[in-house]
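#struct-queue
[09:14] JT: dropping the first one here, sequence first, then the structure tokens:
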Amino acid sequence: MPLPPGSLLELTPQGLYCPAAAAWIDPWRPVPRALITHAHADHARPGSGEYWAIGSSEGILRQRLGATIHLIPVDYGQPHRIGDARVSFHAAGHVLGSAQIRLEAGGESWLVSGDYKRCADPSCAPFEPVGADVFITEATFGLPIYRWQGGAAVAREILDWWQAAPEQPSVLFCYAFGKAQRVLAELAALGVGQAGRPGAEGDEILLHGAVQALMEPYREAGVALPPTRPVGELPRGESLAGRLVIAPPAAQRAPWMRRFKRPQTAFVSGWMAVRGARRRRGIERGFVLSDHADWPGLLQSVRQSGAGQVYVTHGNSDGLARYLREVEGICAEPLEGGFSAERGGEDPDGAEPATPAAETPAATPLA
């Protein structure tokens, strides 16, 4: 459904617009003033007059949108008066610098989630529950089959997989911004790369150039990471047996892969929870790790918002909205507009763009 006329936010061809602040949230097209939830390309696009975003995302935003963008860095929880609206940014737990945006004017408050997750993640600030009258939430993984285990447990699986193949390169595919750095931070938390640890001298992790380009903002933010090195710095012909290599999904079928002799391959994504996703990607192993909220996390976030009205975007928006209405007793509707189309070709979780209809468990009760 569309947003009611006269609401604090309205849906325009450029995206969600707040007339009181004369600002758009994650606009789809260039606008005079953009409030950015995070630096993924489907949320931060070039060409706008000014960008408001969390300061720790500045390095990535300038790299992706241009070094000379007019960027206004803000801190989590700091209120700002923009036009006639009170605006604040709150941690979303999605990637470095990700935020929920709360807007208040005319006696009502709205919270726009952007992308978010509830699992602990050593690479970014944890999700902050925020209250509002109206909550706009994503539902990328809005089905009850999606229930994540902790990142530390998945990192242990990755470490065991890597170390079980000392005669082969281990190439791990995951999204270059956010997922790759989370995997590295989770491995560091297990002791990978720590001085004095047995085998630490072999813990240097090799990176595809697309991943390497986004590492510095994380290190500058103080995120603990293992030692890394671009694959391109290694001499041609050097043995890569026993090395862990992290690369984006696009590298899987690129000429870049030719330098690895008989590698074992794996994919890290929430979509690996779907039967057949690993087979379709043509990889040997799938690790289930997402930077989006799972089903319990979505429900928890809606409840904690205290919102009397919820709008749902992306993913299974119809199903989550129906569950919230029929089971939780919350007024909820899918939000019409170009949200799914405006993903901009960027994977929401580093693997599959959507759950194939043949494998969607439609008969699973929404509970």
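[09:21] JT: and here's the second one, same format:
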Amino acid sequence: MNRILSTKGIFTFAFALFTITFYAQDNFGGLALYTVRDNMGEDAKATLQKVADAGYAYIEAAGYNEGKFYGMEPQEFKSYLKSIGLTPVSTHMGGVTLENADQQIADTKAAGFEYFTIPVPPMGMFTFDRENRTMGMKGTMKEFVDILTTIGKKCEAAGLKLLYHNHDFEYKDNEDGIKPIEYLLDNTDPKYVNFQMDLYWVTRAEADPVAYFEKYPGRFKLWHVKDMDEEGKFAPVGEGTIDFARILKEKKTSGMEKYFVEQDMTWDKKPLEVIKISHKGLKEIGFK
């Protein structure tokens, strides 16, 4: 009897392992969990399972608070992702300061992430004009570079890679006639600081992603693949106007290692529906 139960247990384990391996091999691409942030707030584990079921292979987090990722200790978060065939690649850490950086870096490392990504100018430098709905920053570009470099050195020492993620204002001239993104690229050491390019926001700024790949080869390690409709709003990948196929041809020049679907607002569609549409769009465009 014990032998029969043992054999049955081995079969069940083997089948489960096969299932996870099969889906992990079939899945591709990444999802920025900011897209499904409301769902993550309601039931993080169930939502992550749905992300895997939608065909994604890896994720970028945007839910760190008080030492936990979506309410889970770093090791628990890492273990759960592994159990459903998802890989943690990047996490947005908008609340980082020079004072808490060491702890946040340690937690990011413990959760299994490779990239520590800063989504906006940190430490109170980011500004948002609600009336005009425009983003910007205060403080000097040198201060910004110094902060990124200091945190980047801490990340490098811990075995992580620091990235800065853009919106549109970094690709526009500021009041001093300087494009913040170019100042950052020109004044940071790629050993410590590189970049995540959000293709929607670069396009929204009327800049050309490919031109930046050519001018600064190898500096854009991750992409946000986010489409734009004819009104300039966020759209599912493949249903908008951005020529992703043209951009994808230059991924080697970019230095792109991973990419993530992201859609900040999904309008009349549910986020969990949108991520399926976008994953289909990725495949049709030629992403792998």
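[09:30] RK: nice, looked through the second one.
[09:31] RK: The longest helix spans residues 2-26.
[09:31] JT: good to know. DSSP finds twelve helices and 14 strands in the chain.
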